[in-house]
Amino acid sequence: MKINKFKFPFIAIAIMVTIISCSDSFLDVEPKGTFLSSTYYANQAEAFTGLVAAYDFMRKNSGGFDNMVTMLNAGSDDHYAGGGGPTDGAGIQGFSNYTINANNMPNSFWTDFFRGIFRANIMLLKLPDVPMDENLKARYTAECKALRAYYYFNLVRMFKNVPLLTEPVNPADMYNVLQANPEDVWARIETDLLEAIADLPGTIDASELGRFTKGSAQAVLGKVYLSQHKNSLAAAQFAEVNGTPGSTSQYGYSLLNNFNDLWMIDNKFNTESILEITHTNESLAGWGNAYNDDSEGNIVNTMVGPRGFVDLDETDNIPAYSSGWSFNPVLPELYDLLKDDPRFEATVLDLKTLSEQGKVQYQPGYQDTGYFLNKFAPTVAEEHTGAGDMWLNHRQNSYAIRLADTYLLEAEALGGSGARAQALLDAVRSRVGLASVPVSMESVMKERRLELAGEGHRWFDLIRTDQAATKLASRGFAVGKNEIFPIPFAEFNNTKMVQNPNY
Q1: Residue 203 to residue 407: CA distance in whole angstroms
Q2: Are residues 308 and 424 in the same domain?
Q3: Fewer CB within 10 Å, N side or C side of the chain?
């Protein structure tokens, strides 16, 4: 029998560091590629390079063809997969209609996060011996623990049954790695975050934006607790992050006055941003980078954009949209929920109506509804014209966590009841000019659906609140199976790991 390559990236210490985004300054690290050899990490500069490399796979949120936002949107009740046809992105299509299996599950959702864990583990192994300021070393250590926790959080809620690796594994032992009890993984995530929070700064300089802080680590910990239904612990963490609803928190977080400003490309790291993924249009990325998940641009922009857009009425105020690949078309149900909501225009690009009015034309893609995700829709004005492929070099950042998200998560953790939950819900609605409605779990979840539409949260919301079986039944969702993803075949074949149940 042929032995398939085991895709855990911890099989060798000598790997190439890819330097990517956290902010324009944080990104600017030389050398751009460095081998993580046994002699590396000899000084503070090399440690910093390794730290940047450990942040690399945060981009999985919105970078690379198989990214979190597009994938998770496709499996929700708000979007279809879309794209160019039923075979365009086998994993995205399979997840959207719940025919996902070990063979069409994209490997990168497993390998990219384990690559991030590997880099964090290497840093944690090497940092004690690096000659550098001890306070700075403590911060680097905290960041690596927060990163490891973040990567493991995504792995355990997507796959559940994953190996727990807190140090590099000897290549000779790699085929003997076993999956851990999920409870042990959750416990490790909690421990890493609690230890990280103690040594992370509350605020950081502009040149460091994109790095973990106390507030962002607490927000992740709140989500970790809530995902395990540890609601009181979750509410306590979110309260530290949120502060008084509608005011400025201890970390400087506050809701933007204008919802539309969240989607202004140059409004990066605004007061509502808690954990933000940085993208740049300055890379040399080509198609190989997109499919290897090592491009630095925001590929969601291209993926959700309409195909063949043409503005037929130059007297209107319709932006000139750049051609995209028509993934994640908005379902009519979400359109109907949003159409009278102040957030509609920022969220939904209604080409169906504009086309019927003779103002625009576009080429319908697969599962076309005429409704596109406007939060990420690319414009000609933002097209990259330098080196590297235009489709892969969009510079719009994406929010992994923002304040309206944590407001509503805290309201959920409070059971959708009480004065504070009401205040949190009211603050999100008031920001867009909506009147107060009585707080309940139903009103909180509806608000999350409208406020965070298309940002990749809806599927996890449905799973966490046990609504997936009902909401996704028409899509083929199977209870006892589709709450988690299948482990990609190449990752468990010829190892001691076992596939997830019913796959």
Answers
A1: 20
A2: no
A3: N
Which of 266, 454, 276 is closest to 377 using CA atoms?
454
Residues near 495 by beta carbon (within 8 Å), at least 6 away in sequence: 6, 174, 175, 176, 177
Whether 234 and 259 map to the same domain: the answer is: yes
Residue 347: partners with Cβ closer than 8 Å, 6 or more residues away? 338, 373, 374, 375, 450, 453, 454
Domain boundary among 375, 395, 415: 395
pLDDT along the chain (503 residues), means of 10: 29 31 37 53 95 95 95 98 97 98 96 95 96 98 98 98 90 84 98 98 95 98 98 98 98 98 97 96 74 79 96 84 96 98 98 95 97 96 79 91 98 98 98 98 98 98 98 97 96 90 97
Quick one: pLDDT at residue 38?
67
Q: What are phi and psi of 372, to 5 degrees?
A: -120, 160
Reduce the secondary structure of 318-357 to three states and give it as a string. CCCECCCCCECCECHHHHHHHCCCCCHHHHEEEHHHHHHC
Q: Which amino acid is at 5?
A: K
CA pseudo-torsion sign 473, 465, 91, 187:
negative
Q: What is the DSSP string of 435-471?
A: PP----HHHHHHHHHHHTTTSS-HHHHHHHTT-HHHH
366 is written with which tokens? 């697969």
380: containing domain: 287-395
- Are the beta carbons of 15 and 176 closer than 8 angstroms? no
Peptide bond into 31 cis (omega under 30): yes
- Torsions phi, psi for 35 (to 5 deg): -80, 130
Q: Report which of 416, 397, 420 is spatially closest to residue 242, judged by C-alpha positions.
A: 420
Cα dist. 132→46, 81, 122, 256, 415 in Å? 11, 49, 17, 39, 46
Residues 134, 29: one domain?
A: yes
Between the two ends of the chain, the Cα-to-Cα distance in Å is 22
Phi, psi of 310 (to 5 degrees): -135, 125
Beta strands in 188-323 (DSSP E): 273-277, 307-311
